[in-house]
Amino acid sequence: MTDSLTTDHVADPWLEIGPQALDEDLLNQRAWRMPDIVIYQHGPEEWWVAPLDEELPLVRLNRMGATLLGAMDGRLTIGALLNQYGKWVCSPTQQNGRWHLERWAQPRFSLAYYGTEPPSGHSAEAKWDLLLQKVREGWHQNVKAETEDHLSTFHVQGIQGPHGHFELIETTVSHLFREPCEAMNGTTYGRLLGKTLRQMGWLSPKPKRIVEVGAGLGYVSKELAGELSAEERKGIQYTFLDLTGPFLGSQTSLARQAGWAASAVQANAERMPLADNSVDLLIDNENLADMTPVQFSGDELLMFKGENPQHEEALDLIRRMRLPLKPPYPNVVIFNYGAIQFLQEVWRVLKPGGRAILVEFGIEENWPSPVKLPGHTEYEVQFSHLRHAAKWLGFREQYCTLPQLLGMKPDTQVLCTGAAYTLRRICRELAKPFSVRAYTEKELKIALGDLLPKLNGLHYHNVLDPAWFGLWDFKVMLLEKPGGMSIGQQPAFQESAGFRWYTQQ
Questions:
Q1: Which of 168, 173, 229, 284 holds its CA 20 to 30 A away from the CA of 420?
Q2: How many helices and strands (H and E) does the chain possess?
Q3: Contacts for 105-109 with beta carbons within 8 Å, 24 or more apart?
Q4: What percent of the chain has pLDDT over 70?
């Protein structure tokens, strides 16, 4: 395909994608267009759609091509579509309907789904987002080796700069809500977090040193500053700790603009270069899934013998903390070793009376599963293990979901995230600014202006619908290290039934 959309590529990317054979079995299947598809009408006879793969140019269609895409509603078979549209030119660059039918259902395009049944079961289980997740995972089989150090390697070497990372690679909850949104009660994620911390009494007396781990671009610190007056911020040292060096400049810049006395250090949070008892408040927002996994074999756990020194260390940690692991074990077991190592570090660096808030997506039963993203694989956090470890260390611990903590407005309708990604690509082609975030219909109208009437396929989800971003899967651990502010008193502990019980001495 040769058009203006491919001029920035050394080679034609379409040539890398061979056709999908339309054999007899496939011809008898039906076709559904992906529900996240947004169609932009650029002119009277030209429509644009965006493949999933960012490296592929936008797909341009003429009226016949747009009609073919619209006909993929699950009622017609591939064979019927081929007979009806196969020979007709469906794009301004002369590709016919057969050409598109042979490619659109491939993962890099993800414009359509071919099957004998729709990718949903009972209506209550109709989760097109799960299909899209599978498509993304199939496309993102691009991690050469998911070794136990590939996450740290990716964050040190694989991220060349902050531009676009949280728009394309790993969009976080805090990034989606970095601007005021109705779902956040008309404010931002960081500001609402600050209000919540104040309501819990965590800002009184004010913390003298705040450490934020893995702060992304720094929006949380910027918005958190708005919850404290200039007088309250005086004397507070705000430190960023991040494994990804290119992010540190954005973090400190936004924090200083907001009025913090900010500094930054590039380091691994599993081994924080901070002094014992030196931190009053620690914020860790969506980083636990990026920490070192240990991939045990079932036999290693059954025999309780590691195949290498790191596995032995992890088993020793399980033994010391008396984590309740019960057989039978699957052949491969993911254990959140780095997250528990980090939890030990949090205990070490917090002052007596210091507090920490940890936010991440995860599970409470079974073993973590991989989540494939471009260039790397993250792993769900097993929160029952982390909660057990926190109690063993001696933390006072509270636990809830992120929507519960923030008191989010559950009836807010926000734009499908897939649509937001697509709009970013279309706007980029039109040289029009557009950022991926959570948009209500009113907010999107302001952002797009006169472009909005030219778009079809925009749809909205309830903000707490799992099909939007799975916010119920994001859990919060609120931790306090016993000790308080009593001068000259130090906490001491006794161990009983595998847990530490603290008293003031």
A1: 284
A2: 18, 23
A3: 105/20, 105/31, 106/17, 106/20, 107/52, 107/135, 107/136, 107/138, 107/139, 108/17, 108/51, 108/52, 108/53, 108/56, 108/139, 109/17, 109/51, 109/52, 109/53, 109/56, 109/59
A4: 84
Asked if residues 314 and 321 have their Cβ atoms less than 8 Å apart, the reply is no
Average pLDDT of the residues in 361-382? 87
Residue 121, C-beta contacts closer than 8 angstroms, at least 6 positions apart: none
Domain 150-293+336-408+470-484+492-504 falls under CATH 3.40.50.150: yes
User: In 379-404, which positions are buried (b, 16+ CB within 10 angstroms) versus exposed (e)?
Assistant: bbbbbbbbbbbbbbbbbebebeebbe
Residue in the block written with tokens 């079995």: 25
Residue 80 CA to residue 86 CA, distance in Å, equals: 9
Contact present, 51 and 132 (Cβ < 8 Å): no
Could you tell me how far CA 119 lies from the centroid of its own chain?
23
Dump pLDDT digits (tens) for 150-198. Answer: 667 766 666 666 667 767 678 899 999 999 999 999 999 999 999 999 9
Q: Which of 61, 63, 82, 62 lies closest to 72 in space, CA to CA?
A: 82
Contact residues for 491 (Cβ-Cβ < 8 A; gap 6+): 352, 394, 481, 482, 483, 502, 503, 504, 505
Asked whether 393 and 439 are in contact (CB, 8 A), the reply is no
Q: Are strands 73-77 and 30-33 parallel, antiparallel or unpaired?
A: antiparallel
- Among 341, 338, 378, smallest CA distance to 362 is for 378
List of E strands, 59-111 = 59-61, 73-77
Q: What whole-number distance in Å separates Cα of residue 53 and Cα of residue 55?
A: 5
Question: Rounded to an integer, what distance in angstroms lies between the CA atom of residue 185 and that of residue 408?
Answer: 7
Reported as type and span, the H/E element at residue 110 is none
Q: Tell me the DSSP string of 195-258.
A: HHHHHTTTTSSPPSEEEEES-TTSHHHHHHHTTS-HHHHTT-EEEEEES-HHHHHHHHHHHHHT
Residue spans of the domains in the chain: they are: 4-136, 150-293+336-408+470-484+492-504, 413-462
Q: Which helix (H) or strand (E) holds 99?
A: helix 97-101
Q: Give the whole-angstrom CA distance, residue 333 versus residue 119.
A: 29
Give SS3 for 35.
Answer: coil
Residue 390 pLDDT greater than 90, yes or no: yes
